[in-house]
């Protein structure tokens, strides 16, 4: 019980003071050592689990019921104007600086609902990871990933499908839509995991 309280307190402390750019749904878990920062906007849906030492350092949108494993990074492209003549990279304009040529033009990373991102994966800004997809551990996502796809590699590419056919996918979506899911910091045995009806 005390451990659950401390975990909840950790989530509160790691999200406090970020209201300028951070919007979160209910049931968010944020692991120890996680860093949440975005130049403009970071939106996190309901029932999202962020593992330990996750680094979100770009504008991003994360859908409901996503599982983001330890040491995943969501990072920006073109963060520094490395082509600036006469400026060492260390002192070149950063993307948040109005002098940066891409200031205000960088698209966020979009992670749709029900996505699992494996340990140590890197997600670049400007990509969309489709609903229900799985990204293998250590992958680097530089391009969009379709819905319900299993993707792996550097750069990440589709290597399989999460479900065998469209009927399974539709059944899965119905059961999530009509179900009830509430995470408890006390563990899965204390969480509410109640898939809904698969009737159409």
Automatic annotation (TrEMBL):
Query: Coiled-coil segments, which residues?
Result: none
Q: Would I find Nucleotide-binding among this entry's keywords?
A: no
Listed SUPFAM superfamilies: Trimeric LpxA-like enzymes (SSF51161)
Q: Which Pfam families match?
A: Hexapep (PF00132)
Output the Gene3D superfamilies linked to this UniProt entry.
Hexapeptide repeat proteins
InterPro entries linked to this entry: Hexapep, Hexapep_transf_CS, Trans_hexapeptide_repeat, Trimer_LpxA-like_sf
Please indicate if the UniProt record lists Acyltransferase as a keyword.
Answer: yes
Question: Molecular function (GO) terms listed?
Answer: acyltransferase activity
Q: Which PROSITE patterns match?
A: HEXAPEP_TRANSFERASES (PS00101)
UniProt keywords (A-Z) are: Acyltransferase, Repeat, Transferase
Q: What family is this protein classified in?
A: Belongs to the transferase hexapeptide repeat family.
User: What is the name of the protein in this document?
Assistant: Transferase family hexapeptide repeat protein
Q: What is the species of this protein?
A: Sphaerotilus mobilis
């Amino acid at each position: 019980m005390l451990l659950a309280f401390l975990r909840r307190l950790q989530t509160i402390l790691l999200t406090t003071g970020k209201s300028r750019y951070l919007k979160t749904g209910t049931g968010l878990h944020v692991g120890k050592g996680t860093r949440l920062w975005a130049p403009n906007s970071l939106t996190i849906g309901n029932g999202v689990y962020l593992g330990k030492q996750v680094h979100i350092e770009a504008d991003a949108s994360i859908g409901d019921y996503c599982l983001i494993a330890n040491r995943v990074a969501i990072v920006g492209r073109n963060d520094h104007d490395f082509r600036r003549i006469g400026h060492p990279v260390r002192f070149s304009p950063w993307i948040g600086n109005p002098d940066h040529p891409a200031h205000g033009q960088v698209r966020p990373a979009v992670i749709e609902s029900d996505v699992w991102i494996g340990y140590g994966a890197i997600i670049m800004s400007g990509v969309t990871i489709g609903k229900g997809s799985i990204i293998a551990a250590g992958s680097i996502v530089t391009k969009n990933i379709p819905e319900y796809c299993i993707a792996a590699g550097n750069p990440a590419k589709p290597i399989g499908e999460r479900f065998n056919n469209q009927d399974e996918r539709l059944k899965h979506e119905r059961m999530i839509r009509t179900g009830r899911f509430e995470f408890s910091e006390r563990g899965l045995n204390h969480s509410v995991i109640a898939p809904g009806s698969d009737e159409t």
